[in-house]
Amino acid sequence: xxxxxxxxxxxxxxxxxxxxxxxxxxxxxxxxxxxxxxxxxxxxxxxxxxxxxxxxxxxxxxxxxxxxxxxxxxxxxxxxxxxxxxxxxxxxxxxxxxxxxxxxxxxxxxxxxxxxxxxxxxxxxxxxxxxxxxxxxxxxxxxxxxxxxxx
Length: 151
Hints:
Order of helices and strands: EHHHHEEEE
Helix content: 10-25%
Radius of gyration: 17 Å
Structural class: alpha+beta
C-alpha cells in the first residue's frame, strides 16, 4: 500500500511523482472518442492546423485524468474512502501529442472528518508539467482518507 494514511500527511508535504508519461495520438483519440467529444481541434489535423496552435491539441480531459491517476500511488492508493471534490482546475498551457509530462502534489490542508472517526479530509494541489517546464494543468483535490489502524 503506497498511499499515506490521513495521520501521515502534514500541510506543506510535497511529492514529486515518479511517473513520467509521453502523450500519444492514441491517448488523445481514445479519450475523445470514449467521451463522445467530436471537437475538430482534438481530432482533425487539417482543422487544427488552421488554429493559432497550428496542430492538434490534446483533449484536456485526458490531461486532467492523467494528472489525477499519476498522483494516486503516492497519495490515496489503498487508503482512499472517496474523492470528495476537484476544484480550481486550470489549464494554463496546451498539451500536444509527443509532450512528456511529469507530476507533483502538495498537501494544502487536512482536517478531521465530522462524520467518520476513522478518516479525515486531505486537500492537495496537483500539477502537471511538460518537458519545457510549463505547467499544463493544476487542480485541487479533496479526498476522505483512512486513518492508520490502531496499534
